[in-house]
Amino acid sequence: MAVDAALDDDLSPAERRRRKVRDAIVEAAEAIFTEEGEAGISMRRIAERIDYSPAALYKYFDSKEALFDEIREQFFERLYRRMQAVEEMVTEGPQVNEACLRAYVETGLEQPAHYRLAFSSWFESKFDERPDSYGYAASERLERMIEKAIADGWFRQCDPVVAALSVWAGAHGLTMLAVTIPDFPGAKDKCAGLTLDDLIAFHAEATGRGLATPKLNAWLDAQK
User: Fold this and answer.
1) Does residue 38 have a pLDDT over 90?
2) From the centroid of its chain, how far is CA 149?
3) SS3 217
4) Which residue from 39, 132, 193, 218 puts its CA 20 to 30 A from 126's CA?
């Protein structure tokens, strides 16, 4: 799915039908994944679920790997839109870090089965190999945000690509726990009363302090 893909209103009737079938295929894969795990997913099983022939399915996705790539791309599209909104709405530099983390976690929680399925297997592809993909665009946007935080004196000098990967790794881990463990993080007795919002705020501060200049540390201290 290209970043400049047409909006639904711009699609022809044939393109709308094609998108509808692709969405039905993704939904069927998610349902099977929820019921049986990744091992239960095959193009034949998905075809049976939506009453299509396996051969017809291959007109939309040429392999199981291509289907998983599409599921990941749909997640990154929603994430990209949320990151766009963060940049437009959050004007104070230090607040961007927590806002982006919340955007990532909330995007994953919107469709938990979708998120678990998207990252259950990566096969041989990489999300940033296609410059026209939302995965690439989301990665580039995060790197630009980090570059701006460095330029504005909030983050110390560092490689923005490495920093972006580190931030993503933390956000992904937190999101995967939230979509996998019921009532996370308050399910553990010693964490009773701890909300996901609390943990997101703590994690955002920990990430921020790991990249912080004295200017950002002073700002964070003043918020307490």
Assistant:
1) no
2) 21
3) helix
4) 39
